[in-house]
Protein 1
Amino acid sequence: MRSLFRFIVRYHFFFLFLLVEILSVGILIQSNRYHRAGFINFTDDVQGFIFDHLGGIRKYTNLRKINHDLAAENNFLRNQLDRYNQLLSNNEIRRVDSLPGRLYTFTPATVVNNSVNKQYNFVTLNKGRKHGIREEMAVISANGVVGVIYRASSHYSTVISLLNRDFRLSAKIKKNDYYGSLYWTGENYRHAILSEIPYHVELQIGDTIVTSGYSSIFPEGLLVGVISGFEQAQGNFYIIDVELSVDFRKLTHVNVIQNLLIEEQVNLEKPETDD
Amino acid sequence: MIKIFSRNIVRFLFLVFVQVLIFNNIQVSGLINPYIYVIFILLLPFETPNWSLLVLAFLLGISVDLFASTPGMHSSATVLMAFLRPYVLSVIAPRDGYETGTFPRIYYYGFIWFLKYTAILVTIHHLVLFYIEVFRFSDFFTTFFRSILSSAFSIIFIVLSQYFIFRR
């Protein structure tokens, strides 16, 4: 302890310099918006780089699970394709070409960092602005909804996860289209709460919850989870316990969804302002 | 002692106002912005304690920052400059060292000595300041060119001021 003290006294000029310089740079980053943005982008890139190289191990140990999920999704998509082919051949669907091609584009990405044990969890992806990722894009995995892009730096992006107490998702019950707001309570990473479903709606444990499509970020009908329990709250609303379909502990491959017409929709919905 | 103290305080205020009111408005095609207020750190007496060098540099930088509304930018550059001042002084010291009762001026140590002293510290200050201002390395050579050009102008102003304003 004494030698440490002597060391500090001996180099006090250098330590004082460090202190004052850190103070200056702190003021710089705190109070200049431009410098703060540059600093945050830089730290995000560094963080992403580190986790990218550590994440390889986890990816390898999860290969069996990933394979299984991909096979299941393939199977599901093949079934869907078959159904559409059937309908097409029976002439039950006529293509109405009033939309400019696609409404959504999908970008695959890999999870390089992830947490489930905090109150405000974030996921980091290995794709960023250079790959077309922007803030407010939806993120899903093969099993369902993951979250929304929160920040994007040049090569990485962070996702505000479903397991974040600031995150709210507009979700509905698949069988009768009643919709409510889904949020996480910060307790169990496998469960979330769906609220604002009125009391007269018929519910059963095991009913599927999907996205409502009212948010302009998420397409309609993406899987969120299944009902694992419900009770009546004060007033006329249920509090529904939803078991999430995505296991955030085993998250490795995700897709980022861009709504190509989001600007048009947002502009239309914007309240009129007096000029 | 009191005299040195009060003269430095007056110089501090004078330089901050000259910098803010005159030199901050000089901009030749966005390339040259001389920052002459650092002359304050250059002219401090040899006997100034090291810790007060840093504190004074921080105060100087933050006062210029407040007027330029860029908190932290000038202060981080001036603090680094003040930190390097003792080392530069010992590197370029004349053979007999610095005599007591003298100050770092052309009057005492000659033109060449003062030019070396000013050039090293002002160039370092300007390089750090300009790179902090752009805060990225993508336009490395543009920034480099700008800072060298501006430091050349600042050095000319500072050396000239030795003959007209801060003679002793």
Protein 2
Amino acid sequence: MNTLCWFFTAPLLIAALSLWLRIERRLPWIAAGLMVAQLPLVAWLCLPVFSHSAPVTTDFGLDGVGAAFLLITTLVASASLIQAALLLPAERAQDEAITARHLRQFYLLAGLFLAAMYAVLLAHNLGYLWIAMEATTLISAPLVFYHRTRHALEATWKYLLLCSVGIAFALFGTVLLVAAQHTAGGSSTLHFGALLKHAASFDPRLLRLAFIFCLLGYGTKAGLFPLHNWLPDAHSEAPAPASAMLSGALLNCALVAIWRLSQVMHAAGQDGLVRELLVPAGAIAVLAAGLMLVRQHDLKRMWAYSSVEHVGLLTLAIGIGATPLFILHALNHSLVKVALFLLAGGIIHRYGSKALKQVNGLLRSAPAWGVLLAAAGFAIAGSPPFGTFLSEWLLLRDTFGAGHPLAAVLVMAGLTVTFVAIAVHVGRILFGHAPQEHRTLPAPVWSVVPAALLLLALATGLALAPPVMTMLTHLAAIGGLR
Amino acid sequence: MTISYIEILSAGVACCAVWMCGVTGITPLLRLLAAQTALIAVITALLGARLHEPHYFWLAAVVLCVKAIAIPAYLSWAAGRLHIRRDIGTVLNPMVTLLIGGGTQTAGYFLAPRVAVLPLGNVGAAGMALVLLFIGMLLMLTRRLALSQIIGFLVLENGIFLYGLTQTHGMPLMVEMGVVFDVLVGVMVAGLVIFRLNRSFEHIDVTQLRGLRH
């Protein structure tokens, strides 16, 4: 039996168990336990990739970048599902619009959603990659609608439609990629390894067109400015654990697709176009997201716009061909952003509102959470000693080094604005008058997962010794060319 | 210059799409969509006969059953349940849209050689596929009804399918089937969301959905 099937055990088991009525009450904890058990399993399955690198010849396979993102995705999912086991039943107790059926649906969709994301990361055939990516949209759209409110419905519709159209462009790009091979004559393939091997002989005109359409498509899915319109709505209306998975795992999947395409372009000797498109797009996204962050009134929308910013940074990393940095920053961003969304879920549950105006005095009313939120806010804004600081700093250095001073300056401006905006917003949450009437205080156990994630982010910041970078470079070399 | 049957049929497909620009009634829109997709199924079968590849016939059958019959039938059932007869109004006048659509078809004819895969010899079809892409976008942007936006999306998707069919001859069968399946599920999910929209807002006018603009 194919070892790759093992990746899908926990997600599909969660989906299957959610249909079994008799374990309804214990379902959240069973799902969380399964996902935590999945973590060592994925690590064990990915381990061979670190030692020896056989090129992938099948439609689904494991390469260095895929393995790194599989680990990140599993980590994000297990953190989200543990917090979901705490948050969702507590929410249900307060909101009678959410029934047991909705909760079961959440787990069914979450399991399938994870399976689809694994498929995206394992796919080495760009056709299957597209199918899995579209599946993630279709499965996660109902997740956004979990709260059954009008706003959630509007966000769901926007998400479904914009991402479907976006991803249709990626399909056109994929078709063009096949067409580019026909002009050159010979057989056509969509297999990543074969594409890398033969890319030099493709018709450059159609290949460039293919890359542009794929970038438009997967860029929409990744929330790349100015195609990010759906992202703040979907990420802010979804329940906190789903937001964490959308932000910490799904955006990465779309970026991995762009990375694969950029590798094909690199093999075809079309690096110029990749750089011309991705470097300005990334830099502008960082600055634009920073400016949009200034005028935010909603806790979760704020973190959603911060995701737009980090997608810009990651796009820039792909653009300058710094794959190790792409992996490192994706890891850092996922760790901190998941911690933030999970914290936001708890805060919103406590205050009963998402509006920044009504969330004040956190430091006085719940000091542990206040400290965590402050730390996470600093981390997402890229301050030392967190991992985000290191990866952003290395990225800036490499952007200058690659000869894009203008992009680097734009990014620096964007990061500065972001820092100020986040500091002001988080400051308002932490200080000021706490409202008189509180809902019941959530147990301290709610802060364990965000705290653990932040510790990990701290560790990536402190432990970035040369061996880690060497390992990442090695990992990047297994799949692609650089 | 000889024009193949496939190119003539592709032009027919594009004409259906241009016609759709000027139509606001849901039933005629869905009939045109079904006719357009059925023509694409015929093209698929013709290509299969020309290339002696049996799997094209399977693909043609699936396209006919799923995209030309099941999806329009589902959407017309949904329209019936929602009591929708016609689009409540368009952002652009339908006649103007029709003119733009016609202009696009002309432009597609001239653009064709630039995007076509010349060795395969279906140059005209590539242009017509572009016309479908553009008109799909146009319908999505100018129609106010959520249902018409889905129809626009399907036209867009047909354009991609037509391009892939006539210009590559070789998208793997599994990939094509997966795409058709994804589209089917997508339409189902979108239909469910439309029912929800209608229940919560008592309309499905997307220009009125602006609760989330901050």
Protein 3
Amino acid sequence: MEGTSHDRIAPSELVIEGPRDFRVDTRVYTSPAVFDEEMHRIFENTWVYVGHTGEIERPGDFKTAMIGRNPVIVARAEDGKIHVLLNECRHRGNAVCRESRGSLKNFICPYHGWVYSLSGDLVGVTHPKGYPADFAEKLGGLLKLRSETYRGLIFASMTDDVPRIEDHLGDVRKYIDLWADLSPEPEFKLVKPHHYGYQGNWKFQCENGIDGWHARFVHESAFQTVAEFGGPPTSARSTVGCTRGFDRGCAILERPGISQGLSQDQIAAYRKLLEKRHGAERLEKLWYVRHVFLFPNVFLFDNLIRVIQPISPEKTIVTSSGLMLRGAPDDINRVRLLEMQSRLSTTGMINPDDLEMFASNQTGMRGAKMKWIVLSHGMGQEENVGGAELKGEDTAEVPQRAIYREWTRLMNVADNRR
Amino acid sequence: MELLRPEAEDFLYLEADLLDKRDYDAWLKLFTRDGIYWLPMDENADPTLESSVQYDDTKMREMRVHQLVRKYHYAQHPPSRTVHAVTNVKVAPSGRADEALVRCTATVAEMREGDYLQLGLGEQRLFAGHCEYRLRRDAGGALGIVLKKFVLMNRDTPIINLSFIL
């Protein structure tokens, strides 16, 4: 959207950082103009998560996704290579793929019958005599996006002007390895996703998944219920965890120990599988619940991948795919699935209370007189643990500050729209 | 197991009433000890190895009710009002001497109470689906739910706030 200078609010007005001060203008959550800018400047200028290799395991498999507002297809071609394609016929713009997942030999546009291969090449135009002989070759097929995969995670970028994914991920990469190594055999298997949403801005979910401060308040009803039915006492949900912030808006909330509802015997069996693969020393590094946030749109938890899809300033959809362990017995995966589903899904005991917070956040944000929200908790108390990695207490807003620093960087990117 | 349509209907209407009155402790008692409450995404999938919208055994149902009734569950404060309508009730062959199979259509209108000018409150929504109940009689002849399966029309699309009981 081409804003005039009085439409566009400068990013420097929206995020203010001082020595122990970090404030964000509430218009980042409410303004349609800011939302439009985000969909372009953020989602079209960096690596965005579009799927996991476990969702398209065989040649011919595909799934659809959105990069901001751009509909894309993620497909595995006959040769096994993965392609991310704009879901838009080169003729008159029709979305050639209308299913969210499936398996096909090629994509056929329903409008005038043009055919594209799984790698996006324009295989055939119907009634070709109406065009010069080299028309199809010159026009090209479905627009291919630059796409790279890391530990099963498929990323795509609307711009070619991004570093290799490993370089983009930088210091957070070793934590992605720790996450991925939780599957005894790489990579995780995915079950069908849970779909839910909320009436609030997409960034509320980004800020919440790596927020260690809210859980003891918002999720008290869930934690107490679990404890009263024989689970770990609520005091065990302690403050021994930490937060981490990285470049490129990445962040982590971490606490030691993994339970996933498993019995003591099952935990021992799982740990034995991991130790066999990774050794005793690395096992101890793996054995954490880590919520890893990769800006702008994906969370990696020990038991699910959660994708955030902005719809409008006040509406967001979340797609949450449970992770099953490859190389673990069914009884372990059964317990993990039901534990994840009963806590963190469409009907979970835990996450609907977050979604309720987001709706009431969004309601409150409509109060225009309150200009700023405050994200300075733990500022000046962080530890620089190497590279760009900052570490704080679990209640520190280290992750949220990392998010808004990257948000500011991308919102300042030159407008390269036509 | 012998079950005629009027008795099946009366049982389903009783369940609907208890849910609309939010008498969840009484609703729990309608299930057998091995009873399952299932909102599938895929009816043909194994719900212990594949995702469902919800798949609750007795303990999970009791935990949900505990969180709803005896704890401050923010997603249900203010609470949902519901109106359950049960129609198209048919008793079908169950394939088991100790169970009856009842199919029906259910529509549930739902609305959160509270300040309707605020987001997430005061909006009327409709949930709809086909249900299948497997019922068993106890020693006294009373019906109990072995399986309640509610196949929601919108089961594989985003649902905002499904923290009440359908």
Protein 4
Amino acid sequence: MNPDPAVRAALQQRITILAPVSARLHAAHVHPPIAPHDWHGPAARAFADLEAELRGRITAADELVAALLRESRLALAGLEHE
Amino acid sequence: MSEGVRGFVVPPDPWALHDPDGDPVDPALGGPLRVSPPSGSTIAPWPAGPDGGAPAVGGHGIVVVATDALLAHAERLDALATALATDARGVAALPPLPGVPVPGQHIASVVLAVRSAAGTAERARVALRSAIRSYAAAEARERARMLQLAAGIAVALSPLIRALVLIGFPAFVVGRLAGFPAADDVMALRRWLIAHPGLITNPAFVEAVRSAAMSIDETVSATVFLPPDAVAEEGARHGFEGVEVGAALLVGAAAPFGAFRDGPVTVDRVATLPGDRGPRGAVERLARVPEGDQVRIERYQAPGEPPRYIVYVGPTETFSPAPGDEPWDLTSNVAGVAGLSAGSIRATEAAMRDAGIAASDEVQFVGFSQGGLVAARLAADGAWNATGLETYGAPTGNIELPSGLAGMAVRNTDDLVPALAGPQLDSRLLQVERQAFAPGSPIPDELPAPAHQRSAYVATATVVDAARSDVVRTQIAAMDAFTEDYLQRDGSRVTVMVYHASRGAPATSGAAIP
């Protein structure tokens, strides 16, 4: 591994940026936006489809960001053990 | 017989409508809370006017746009879309790692996923707001259609009304001379209404009342062979607009029969008490609205600050059209809707002056039923420095309010009383409504107009306090903060003053207010 301080700083910056993004996406994944049940009709059905798509995209983004964050932390930990 | 608030026994009034001690109404019996945000707020479906206040909404009035739950959802989507857009920009700016690839990951795919989620959230946000605006537009069209239909019916029925007037007027005069309607007749009508609560506790009936209230001028025009707009135009020349014209006509037409004749009022301060804290939430505010004694004023003092006041105004005490010594009666109701000088308004202003309220002092007004009408009239009057207004079941839709008032107008959609003022024309104040007894729920049959009872509004206020949308919560917090701001300071003090007003010359000392 490259012990370059610039790489360590870049990894720390990545983690700083990704941690809150991951937390927000995970919260949105765990408590997904679902329109109230008392809203009915064609517009409500179209909107429900759109929200289902949104939930799917949030889940995908949550998984990818969490993985990148985890791997960035592992990489930083690896550098600090050198 | 019931015990009066001042300790004397009062006879049952066949014209009384409210029962302050009525059985509680379960909030679960009602429908969802529906909300019309004030103009200028980000989610209002109508743009703010040129002064940042109400837009020109036309004669058909504004409509309620969405449930509290749907608005809360829209607010959540707003926040989510904004946060994801910020996150997408942040992820796109991730620093490169020279010579050190992160195993198993491609940053580009991460950026794409977050951007995709942000884009979909934005589409959902826009779609939901668009749906809310579409619903508002559809309801506005339906409201306009109803009012046009009512005006058409008024014109079509004018020959029948004309015949009824020609035949009915002499019969009415003879009946009045013979003592009709006697108290027993009124009690019979009251019993019939109580036995059939579903008739008037019905949103369709309430909308019909609203349309009829707006069509009195057309009805009169057509009945006396004038063009439909003639009476409205004549009313406008005398400063009356919309439903005010019909109410003013009613006052004028009833005067020869001794009805709706106002007179001087006297006001007595019956109690001065120390208070401990300000009201928190809608239920507590409504609970402080007096009954029997008609006005309660709370003064909040903090060292080095000008005093602040909350003026609570009670509901109609009697619906008798014949004016007696009670100024909170039908006469004041009709005069207040017409924009005329009403005894209850003059009495409340006299109480405010007695409490020491100066024109520059900040005042919140809270009122139920006629108390809400009085509160709205005073908040709209430039003589007082109104900062907040909260009304329950009040016929105030035709009153144009100033911009920047905290608070809300709360009404039950199955309560006919607010409909007596016609459609909701003012859009500066948050409008909140709810059906007190949803379809299929049992309607109480102890009192007439169950949806207008204080107990029904306590149920709705309970739902208001549990609202999730920022649109509603912001206004509750603004009303609460008015007193909390002062009471958090050392040396703050609360004084409660209670007033009783009567129509007629003072019995002992003091001058009547003309």
